[in-house]
Amino acid sequence: MPKTEEHIIRTDYSEIMQKNYIDYAMSVIVSRALPDVRDGLKPVQRRVLYDMWELGTRSDRPYRKSARIVGDTMGKFHPHGDSSIYDALVVMAQDFKKGRVLIDGHGNFGSIEGDGAAAMRYTEARLEAFTEDVFLSDLDKNLVDFMPNFDETEKEPTVLPARLPNILINGSDGIAVGMATSIPPNNIGEVIDAVCAFIRNDKITDEELLKYIKGPDFPTGGIVVNRDELPEIYRTGSGRIRIRGRVETEAGRNGRTNLVVTEIPYTMVGAGIGKFMNDVAALAESRQAPEIADLSNQSSKEGIRIVIELKKGADAERVRNLLFRKTKLEDTFGVNMLVVSEGRPETMSLRQIIESAVDFQFEIADRKYQTLLAKELEQKEIQEGLIRATDVIDLIIEILRGSKNRKMATDCLVKGRTEGIRFRSEKSRAEAAQLMFTERQANAILDMRLVKLIGLEIDALMKEHAETLKRIDFYRNLLENHDAMAAELVKELGAMRKKYAVPRRTAIEHAEEIVIEEAGFEEEEVIFCLDRFGYAKVLDTGTFEKNREAAEADNRYVFRLLNTDRICLFTDSGRMHTVKVLDVPQRKLRDKGVPIDNLTNYSNQEEELLYVAPLSFVSGTELFFATEKGLVKRTEGSVLSASVRTVLSTKLGEDDRLVFVGPCGQMEQAVLESKEGYFLRFPLAEVPVQKKAAQGVRGMTLGEDDRIHAVYLLEASKEFAIEYHGGRMLLSRLKLAKRGGRGNRSRR
Description:
Blueprint: H1 13-33, H2 43-55, E1 64-65, H3 66-76, H4 82-91, E2 103-106, E3 124-127, H5 129-136, E4 146-148, E5 155-157, H6 166-169, E6 172-175, E7 180-183, H7 188-200, H8 206-209, E8 223-224, H9 230-236, E9 238-244, E10 246-251, E11 257-263, H10 271-285, E12 292-297, E13 306-310, H11 316-326, E14 330-336, E15 338-341, E16 344-347, H12 350-391, H13 393-402, H14 406-415, H15 426-432, H16 439-447, H17 455-480, H18 482-500, E17 507-508, E18 525-530, E19 535-540, H19 541-546, H20 548-554, E20 557-562, E21 566-571, E22 575-580, E23 594-595, E24 609-614, H21 615-619, E25 622-627, E26 631-636, E27 646-648, E28 658-663, E29 669-674, E30 678-683, E31 697-698, E32 708-714, E33 721-724, E34 727-730, E35 744-745
Parallel strand pairs: 8-17
Antiparallel strand pairs: 1-3, 2-3, 4-5, 6-7, 8-9, 9-14, 10-11, 11-13, 12-13, 15-16, 18-19, 18-20, 19-23, 21-22, 21-24, 22-27, 25-26, 25-28, 26-31, 29-30, 29-32, 30-35, 33-34
């Protein structure tokens, strides 16, 4: 074999990566993630609907298994896995996600509370009548182009001939590479009104269009509260819509008041409802909303109903505002009207979307009436041939009887060829040579049944011909007269509005920012408890006094403080975390608390807890700090008072950590113990008072591998003993030395 010559292409690796990444990104953007502005559908949605149409799962026919639809779509048009296809089918059938559902689902298609749909083998589906009318009814009239599928064995439409701007009616969301789309749904009747207004006046502005489209219309209802910002959002195609749930007041039991959530923000659909319930419970538990007595979710197929029972005499308006401010009952919907237009992604305004939709309507209408006109012209030609044939029917019968085959008869009717045909007379032969029908007319004549020669049938043919001529004039007028076409489109849109329009579900209002007045409460003394596992709770003083021994035995830290105070947690990282006492749940003695790291920035996985005390105590005392490398300092607790949740209580050197933090206001001496058994006792007066940003001074000189193991603070007049190597060791009898020494090694 001849040796082939190698061709090595030298290029920059980064250029290849950039080109390939851009190609991949555009493929995801155009072929998966973003909707087309013309029909408002992503490719997978379009393919599912078209496949259902091809399968015959119409609104007036029985349901079909979803698995059958998914499998057929995947095999013919969308080779990207069954889960993505089924997910798209499910969403198009969920009335709590779509302004107008496109698929009629039968079975468990999920719930507004986040329950997933049943497996595709259990559910069934068929097209909605709306989908057939708006997207699919005229597919046979050459309205859109078709392209080969992925293996070129089928044809699929490049876009569905949507007669309404579905991108506005149902909205869309999707994440592509480097970009995302988020379009809110709008009211179908208002959208049709806006489209009609644009058709009548293509110079209309975004502000004028908003006279028809008041704002988004979410399937979950709710209240849009930033009405004044909507014009800018719709003009630019991006912004943030503030939406609240609807909360009503009802009379409860025993003279109490209930707050009932009947509509939720669109962003709360799914797991957001469960999170809302947890957030409300947390508000009551942390006593930010002490008025809440009970909470229950009574939602059903009839709608949302979340009941919040208030205590007697509670301020319902304050609790309502607290819910809006502290939970997702008021949320924002980010708008980014990014669509695929002419094959590329583009952020469009309301007017641009409607303009694109109207242009598409004129385009498909032009193709529709061109197709209908061609059919009517063909029909006119046939009708004229049949009418003419009835006048010379005897001659035609003579031609048929004298011909040997169909081709001979056809050539005589079309081209006047009489050779080989037997005629009764030369006159008939001469007349036959003058017929000159068209090919189409000749075939229609040859296929005509004799019953058509009855007088009434001939009259019906004449009437049908007259109707055909009227339709031809009508179609030609539409195609040649823009105003006539516009009027016809408006007429069709009006019929759709009458058939499919629904009342608005979302209210559009302007509301001021909510200001919450903190709930008034009585300042009282409580008991804070933190057990050795890091669970915290608050006890009332009565419970504590009755069970003091049990409470102190079960917990690592137990102290009294006011409920207006803060709790300080010092860790070996040098940080001081704080938490409001009000944020710590009040429990009974045997109830389990909550993890303290859930209430603060403290992480028990990364830090070791050294000391816990009330902020009121810390602020009024002096603290002693000691690090693993033997540095010590004193710091006034008042400099640590802060409103933030975490502050730096001391600065640490590299690879150093705190081993001790404690109050030293009444203490006079410090004892440092190292891991190698050295003890050093020195006066606290030798330790300077420093700021929290200081690392401290040398407290003890350590060996190369030695570290501070323990720290003890003593009063000079009192004895202090520790357990050491199985015996008792009096620290107060250690030799009093100076700070910074090596200390003495214990022989025990």
